[in-house]
Amino acid sequence: MKALVFETFGGPDVLHVQEIEAPEIGPDDVLVEMKAIGLNFADVYRRKGNYHLAGNPPYICGYEGTGIVKRAGSNVTGIEPGDRIAFADVPYANAELVAVPKEKAIPLPNDISFETAASLLLQGLTAHYLTKDSYSIKAGDTVLVHAAAGGVGQLLVQIIKILGGTVIGLTSSEEKRQSALAVGADHMFLYSEDWKQNVQDVTDGKGVDVAYESVGSTLMDTFESTRIGGTVVFFGMAGGDPVSVDPRMLMDTSKTLTGGDLWNVLTSHEERVNRSQELFGWIQEGKLKVSEPTVFPLSEGAKAHEYLESRRSTGKILLIP
After folding, report:
1. pTM of the entire structure?
2. Mean pLDDT over the full length of the chain
């Protein structure tokens, strides 16, 4: 089979397609012929050597994708050859064939395309646990969303609206502001504006009930924009490390700081399937829209990585074998 591989850490140019042995499946695995593969910044970090990679080169990136089952292991029940499946956390996905453990195989409805599911799962499941587990959004909540035009951000905006919240979003450009408004944000402010004052103005000086903080360097500004007794959910630091938080500030303001990580939530097959089914259901009902992905052939993986790192992309980037 063909796979997108690299032997040394470095820039996008270290990536190339190579013919390698097809993976062997164990009794609890299924062999999947890949149809669409999601590209994420984690793949860039692995290619650069920032994230640890087990084994020896050639290395294969990719953790998220969709495809058709070709063969099932002897212990596998409920999945047959020909079934459509998706996954969010299986390694070596940048290949024509992937061995997927049964517990990580998510059934894909016939009316959800391979491209839509590969664009949705990792970021959609992140937005799902943030709004259901880290803080349970309730009707009437006013919510601040950082990077509201990004992949997770646009899904957060939509899910908050589905659950009955009001969204105040932050982003970096007029184009991105319009993208977030188009998916349902109620108010959108730019980081270059006095956004803290804007948040106070639209909340009548109270601040928001909950803020989703993914920038990091803005953490204390986010606390200032959150009401007494409110919650800040910290789940990323794309803009730099946050400062340390004084627990006395939390005590004095009755505010809550909580963290979130997807891998603490996706702990069973049931969790993966139930959460994915709710996301798929919202798509089927027309409540949740996934923006059109940018598609590259697997053979042009280096170009796809370069495009992702350029920050020019607004939707998902997919690799197609």
Report:
1. 0.94
2. 95
